[in-house]
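**User:**
My hope is that you can spare some time for a protein that puzzles me. This is the protein in question:
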Amino acid sequence: MARRAEAFGLNVSWWGPREKPEAPWPRARDLLALAAASDILVVACRASAETVGLISGPVIDALGAEGLLVNVSRGQVVDEDALIAALKAGRLGMAALDVFQTEPTPAERWEGVPNTVLTPHTAGATSGAVPKMVALTRENLRRFFAGEPLANPVAE
């Protein structure tokens, strides 16, 4: 994602809970600092107990009235109530969401919320990914009926 952003001439920085010495981009000291320094904040992290509500009201406010929040990770990561309130109040400029706390998200929840792009959770459905998903499903079915451990795409 960072390489693609660079191709558009964007300055890239990041924050995460663990150091990534191989990352060529500067790491912000914390998430609030990253949000405050960003025009666009792309959220791409795993779902875990530690990431529930990670994108909170203070982070949204740090991104600011001109900022764009893009969530392509998991719905639980963004505090949707804080996000909706910030968009309605003009404290956040825009939001683009591919995932929601409740899926499918109720349409009425987003009624009257300005400057949003809402899409169904299809970001992983690329021409390269779909055949891999099908192959993994077939392999796991074969393993299940053979009594073997299921394939873990993260570990393999």
